[in-house]
Design brief:
Length: 117
C-alpha cells in the first residue's frame, strides 16, 4: 500500500480508520498524512510521512498477517471455520477484529521501529 495523501481527511495514514482534520505535513508541504484522533496515530504522522513506501508496505503486510491471526483466533473461539457459517453479528465482529487488530499492530510496529523484513 502507499501513504494515503488525500486532499481531505478520509483515511488515517497509520491505522486506516476514519481520519479527522488532523495530520502531518512538513513546513510548506503540499501533501498531508491525515490521521484519526488516536494520540499514537497523531504522534506517528511524521514517521509515516517520511517512511519509504517499500518499508511502509512491508509493515502493513506484517500487521495484516498478525490481524488475520487474531481474527482466526476469534473464529476458533466460536468454533466456526467457514466465513459462510457466520451470523451477521459474528461477521461484523470478525471484521472489527481484523480492522482493530491491524491498527493496533501498525501502531505497535511503528512505535517500536520494527525492521520491515
Amino acid at each position: 500500500m502507499t501513504i494515503p495523501f488525500d486532499d481531505e481527511p478520509v483515511c488515517c495514514g497509520i491505522c486506516r480508520r476514519q481520519a479527522v482534520g488532523l495530520g502531518y505535513t512538513p513546513k510548506f508541504g503540499k501533501r498531508i498524512v491525515w490521521t484519526c484522533d488516536d494520540p499514537t496515530c497523531l504522534s506517528l504522522g511524521k514517521t509515516v510521512f517520511h517512511m519509504p513506501a517499500k518499508n511502509l508496505t512491508q509493515q502493513e503486510a506484517f500487521s495484516l498477517s498478525e490481524a488475520g491471526e487474531e481474527a482466526g483466533a476469534y473464529l476458533e473461539s466460536i468454533g466456526k471455520f467457514s466465513l459462510a457459517e457466520l451470523t451477521e453479528e459474528e461477521w461484523i465482529r470478525f471484521l472489527k477484529t481484523v480492522l482493530n487488530a491491524f491498527g493496533d499492530r501498525m501502531r505497535a510496529r511503528l512505535l517500536s521501529q520494527a525492521a520491515p523484513f
